[in-house]
Amino acid sequence: MRADGNRQPPDAGSRTEPLYRIGGSPREPRLPVRVVILGATGSIGVQAVDLAVQQPDRLQVVGLAAWSRVDELAALVRRLEAAGAASAPAVAFADPRAVSAAARDPLLGRRLLPPGPEGLDAIAALEGADCVVNGIVGAAGLAPTLAAAAAGRRIALANKESLVVGGGLVREAVLRGGAEIVPVDSEHSALAQCLSGRTAEELERLVLTASGGPFRTWKAAAMAAARKDEVLRHPTWNMGPKITVDSATLMNKGLEVIEAHVLFGVAYRDIEVVVHPGSIVHSLAVFRDGAVVAQLGAPDMRVPLLYALAGERHWPLATERLDLARLGELRFEAPDPERFPCLALARRAGEAGGRAPIILNAANETAVAALLDDRLGFADIAAVIAATLDDLPGGPVGSLAEALETDAAARRAAQRLIAVRARR
Ligand code: NAD
Ligand code: MG
């Protein structure tokens, strides 16, 4: 994204058509809800499996997909079947190397789909499914989101990268397929709950809360020297490694600003981020009369996950209940742009639109993978993303192929920048 002077970014002050249907789902889902879980072996995926195991009368798992962990997926199928929450579900592995092992497994071999993108798309559009949980990490989640949208499914979307990388493409596919997106990301689920029964016209502004991550109170110099285990020590949420690193840089919140813009159609300048260390208030909607509606709860991803699976109903769930008197107070503070440059990088890329958010996301995924692989320091993540955005041209994106080309080019550029840093 080369600098283009002082021109006002096209998306900063403009509203767009919301992707999320503001006001809530019109109808009660038919029971049991037949669910496909993408990224089943991950943090979100396993929690979706847990919910089905607890509520087999409401949730039946008809398909599961993962990258490569054959034994873990087989264990999940065994648990689901023992609880009566699945019966010979379809299975897909994105990693072609996993498929021969899966074919030999008596449990997984029964309904194994082809390996790679083809099988992933097929399971995302599986015949007879009502709801697809997308718990894949990264831009790899975009194609299956599009496949589920084209098949007209309700998509319980945890994979925020789908909307960052392909917001426009997802919008088209949802409209064409008659699909529905329900966010699982806790902030966006909170906003969906705040907007239940409302209209887009009543809404003025959104406030996304951020825990602040492990480095909220750290000095910049200490952050620059942070060890990997310190980056991965999230204060309130227990999640997969990539989003945990994103929470330490606040890139997660940056991606969520873009996600909120796509879902709710609110202009970037009307999406605020506030640090709230307790992760109790999950986000807030500000209406045109100044009324603020917030959603609160103990930090537990099963709550937004079940809300999406239930077609935006509050089904019973045994979770920790809030004890406000014991909490005593709720703290809020402004994020520090100096120590957390990723937040502004993401906002600028979102405002520029087109290729910029794709480049931002690809550079971030590449830098985070390098950190997890001990090839990059914490402070270099933002530097690599900023340099990748500077190196590559912006411009509009018309198709999935163009989006994927941009993604690949940005990954190559970020790898080169990381290699140069490693030689220093
Ligand atoms: P994770 O790393 O724990 O799990 C990722 C899953 O995706 C695994 O099942 C893995 O097998 C699968 N996967 C990885 N690469 C794949 C590929 N190329 N093709 C197909 N499958 C692939 O991640 P997570 O923490 O569960 O996060 C998943 C998504 O949900 C992310 O987009 C994240 O931002 C979002 N999210 C997670 C949480 C949380 O609490 N974990 C909260 C909010 C949003
Ligand atoms: Mg979130």
Provide a descriptive summary of the structure in words.
There is one protein chain. The protein is α/β, with parallel strands linked by helices and 424 residues long. The chain has 2 domains: 33-185, Rossmann fold (3-Layer(aba) Sandwich); 186-424, Rna Polymerase Sigma Factor, Chain: A (Orthogonal Bundle). The protein is 44% helix and 13% strand. It is built from 17 helices and 10 strands. The chain has helices at residues 43-54, 70-82, 96-104, 116-124, 142-150, 161-177, 186-194, 220-224, 228-231, 241-249, 251-264, 302-309, 324-327, 341-352, 356-372, 380-391, 400-423; strands at residues 33-38, 59-66, 90-93, 131-134, 154-157, 180-183, 203-210, 271-275, 281-287, 292-296. It has a 6-stranded parallel β-sheet, with helices on both faces. Helix 6 (161-177) packs parallel to helix 11. The longest helix has 24 residues, at 400-423. It starts with 32 loop residues before the first strand and ends with a helix. Residues 1-6 have low confidence and may be disordered. The protein binds nicotinamide-adenine-dinucleotide and magnesium ion.
What does the secondary structure layout of this molecule look like, with pairings?
Blueprint: E1 33-38, H1 43-54, E2 59-66, H2 70-82, E3 90-93, H3 96-104, H4 116-124, E4 131-134, H5 142-150, E5 154-157, H6 161-177, E6 180-183, H7 186-194, E7 203-210, H8 220-224, H9 228-231, H10 241-249, H11 251-264, E8 271-275, E9 281-287, E10 292-296, H12 302-309, H13 324-327, H14 341-352, H15 356-372, H16 380-391, H17 400-423
Parallel strand pairs: 1-2, 1-4, 2-3, 4-5, 5-6, 7-8
Antiparallel strand pairs: 7-9, 9-10
